[in-house]
Amino acid sequence: TLGQLPADTRLPWHRVLGAGGRLSLALGTPSGDEQRARLRAEGVNVTNNRVDMTRHGWRPMEHSG
């Protein structure tokens, strides 16, 4: 699981979201606050504990080359 990753991991764990763009990490916890800060630093808006997947979601056809 993501919680078992080494502290120095380079995996962009903050981009892992639940169904419908829901952030799984609780607001007000160190890891939840870190996730929100990292997403916002990338220009991703977080509203009501969700990310707008229409705007920020991965679209495989655009990345297939």
UniProtKB/TrEMBL annotation:
A single GO BP: DNA repair
Domain Methylated-DNA-[protein]-cysteine S-methyltransferase DNA binding residues, every copy: 2-44
Pfam families reported in the protein's UniProt record: DNA_binding_1
InterPro entries for this protein: ATL_DNA_repair, MethylDNA_cys_MeTrfase_DNA-bd, MethylDNA_cys_MeTrfase_DNAb, WH-like_DNA-bd_sf
SUPFAM superfamilies on file: Methylated DNA-protein cysteine methyltransferase, C-terminal domain (SSF46767)
GO molecular function: catalytic activity
UniProt keyword annotations, A-Z: DNA damage
Keyword DNA damage: yes
PANTHER family referenced in this protein's UniProt entry, alphabetically: 6-O-METHYLGUANINE DNA METHYLTRANSFERASE (PTHR42942), ALKYLTRANSFERASE-LIKE PROTEIN 1 (PTHR42942:SF1)
Protein name: DNA base-flipping protein YbaZ
